[in-house]
């Protein structure tokens, strides 16, 4: 009956750890036990067996102006797989005035048949037009259960009135609103002032978007969500100031979820002081913060105040694309790669240094985002009936992170030279081995679009 058994490993879920074999049939977990009979056996001796990791925030094959991110759906999902991520959520990436349904189709054309892992799409809500609202209800039913809203960036920025209309509509359609929170007016003012003073280098980027610029927008959006009784998911939370505002909203009884990203746990404002133009590699938004925030974010992850770690993977080549901002930091394409390094970094610094238990690590990298984005229990756990997305993780394998040995299609690694203890050894996607000894052995096109359930926020 059973096609394959993953044996001799320690199965770790968000609930607990146990020495048990995993029986797989037709791509799903069919049994957990001992002495399971099967034709194919995968040995996990000395390893952890984790549920496939879920990255709820990535940008693949994204065009901004005239330039395209280094990773397309193919290279980005291969990199994700090698790093232990078996499900990711990208965006429809439409702008104000665009037909949302058309962009859903367009993104499917780009991704379907070209992905190495399973994927889903957040709807981008770039205006509150009748067409957008009508599409929202229909697309929710079709399994697009979350949407991205922006307080900044030309083409996607929404006014407060539009936020209220869209948050209310999302609530009615049971779509989870995920918001990029930075005060656009403050950024424009501070950027203008810095540039007029001749402060054009990458190191001025964080001064154009300080912590309160993020915290103010998070607070405002949380207040607006409270007015219409909508749940909220804050994207890439970076600092203590924003965390405080979220706590206040929760104190008012609101359902507010939030993610952070590895770059805010491992990198800091000091990286902008790298020699020459190298600081541009770290120009992403919201920007890297003072190191004092690292402890704040780790504690928030440990205590469940932050529910997810995603990457906001958005790779631009240093040599040819970041250099567009040579004359002015505000012209540097915003974003950095991270789709492949998230899990090893979190395991090394989280579990390895005792900042997170194994359960907490699985919670923030897999189970939490799976629940929040309506993928659970198909994704995010190892249980009978769930997809057999498994990461056989060797806790003793040491790897030096480097652009040279990663699969992300971009000419640098923000963590170049960082040595991690523990790395994915074998990765299974719905029962098929797609990564072996750190190399992709699966087939592109094997990944499937996942129709999602309503978020646990509702
Ligand atoms: Zn993003």
Task: Give an account of the 3D structure.
The chain has 458 residues and is of the alpha/beta class. The chain has a single domain, classed as TIM Barrel, CATH 3.20.20. It is 29% helix and 22% strand. It has an eight-stranded parallel sheet with strand order 8-11-12-13-14-15-16-17. It has a seven-stranded mixed sheet with strand order 3-2-7-18-19-20-21. The longest helix has 17 residues, at 211-227. The model has no long low-confidence stretch (mean pLDDT 98). Bound molecules: zinc ion. Zinc ion binds at residues 57, 59, 312.
What descriptors fit this protein?
seven-stranded mixed beta sheet; eight-stranded parallel beta sheet; alpha/beta; 458 residues; TIM Barrel; globular; binds zinc ion
Task: Give me a quick take on this structure.
This protein has helices spanning 73-82, 100-111, 130-141, 160-173, 184-196, 205-208, 211-227, 240-251, 262-266, 292-302, 342-351, 358-372; strands at 4-7, 10-12, 17-19, 21-25, 28-33, 40-43, 48-51, 53-55, 63-64, 67-68, 85-91, 118-124, 146-150, 176-180, 232-234, 256-260, 308-309, 390-400, 419-429, 432-436, 439-440. It is an alpha/beta fold.
| Outline type | globular
What is the CATH topology?
Answer: TIM Barrel
Structural class: alpha/beta
Per CATH, the architecture is Alpha-Beta Barrel
Total domain modules = 1
- Stretches with pLDDT under 50, minimum 5 residues: none
Radius of gyration: 21 Å
The N- and C-terminal alpha carbons lie at a distance of 38 Å
Query: Using DSSP, what is the number of strands?
Result: 21
- Mean pLDDT score, rounded? 98
Q: What is the beta-strand fraction?
A: 15-25%
What percent of the residues sit in helical stretches (DSSP H or I)? Answer: 25-40%
**What summary fits the major beta sheet?**
8 strands, parallel
């Amino acid at each position: 009956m059973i096609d394959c058994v993953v044996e001799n490993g320690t199965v770790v879920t968000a609930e607990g750890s146990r020495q048990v074999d995993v029986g797989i049939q037709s791509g799903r977990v069919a049994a957990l036990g001992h002495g399971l009979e099967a034709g194919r056996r995968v040995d996990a001796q000395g390893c952890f067996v984790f549920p496939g990791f879920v990255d709820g925030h990535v940008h693949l094959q994204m065009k901004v102006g005239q330039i395209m991110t280094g990773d397309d759906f193919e290279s980005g999902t291969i990199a994700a797989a090698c790093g232990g991520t078996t499900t990711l959520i990208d965006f429809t990436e439409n702008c104000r005035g665009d037909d949302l349904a058309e962009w859903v189709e367009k993104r499917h054309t780009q991704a379907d048949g070209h992905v190495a892992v399973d994927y889903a799409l957040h709807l981008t809500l770039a205006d509150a037009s009748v067409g957008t609202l009508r599409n929202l209800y229909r697309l929710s039913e079709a399994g697009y259960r979350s949407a991205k809203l922006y307080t900044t960036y030309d083409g996607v920025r929404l006014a407060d009135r539009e936020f209220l209309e869209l948050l209310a509509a999302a609530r009615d359609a049971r779509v989870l609103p995920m918001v990029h929170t930075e005060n656009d007016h403050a950024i424009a003012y501070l950027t203008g002032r810095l540039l007029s003073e001749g402060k054009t280098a990458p190191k001025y980027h964080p001064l154009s978007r300080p912590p309160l610029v993020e915290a103010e927008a998070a607070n405002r959006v949380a207040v607006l969500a409270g007015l219409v009784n909508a749940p909220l998911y804050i994207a890439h939370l970076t600092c203590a100031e924003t965390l405080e505002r979220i706590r206040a909203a929760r104190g008012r009884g609101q359902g507010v979820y939030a993610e952070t990203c590895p770059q805010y746990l491992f990198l800091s404002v000091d990286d902008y002081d790298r020699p020459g133009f190298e600081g541009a590699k770290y120009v992403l938004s919201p920007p890297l913060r003072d190191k004092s925030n690292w402890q704040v974010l780790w504690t928030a992850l440990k205590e469940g105040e932050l529910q997810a770690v995603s990457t906001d993977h958005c790779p631009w080549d240093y040599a040819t694309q970041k250099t567009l901002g040579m004359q002015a930091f505000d012209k540097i394409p915003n974003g950095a790669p991270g789709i492949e390094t998230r899990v090893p970094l979190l395991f090394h610094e989280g579990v390895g240094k005792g900042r997170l238990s194994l359960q907490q690590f699985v919670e923030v990298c897999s189970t939490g985002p799976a629940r929040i984005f309506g993928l659970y229990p198909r994704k995010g756990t190892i249980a009978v009936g769930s997809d057999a997305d498994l990461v056989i993780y060797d806790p003793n394998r040491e790897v030096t992170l480097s652009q040279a040995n990663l699969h992300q299609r971009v000419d640098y690694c923000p963590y170049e030279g960082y040595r991690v203890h523990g790395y994915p050894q074998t990765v299974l996607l719905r029962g098929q081995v797609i990564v072996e000894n750190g190399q992709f052995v699966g087939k592109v096109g094997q990944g499937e679009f996942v129709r999602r359930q309503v978020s646990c926020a509702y």
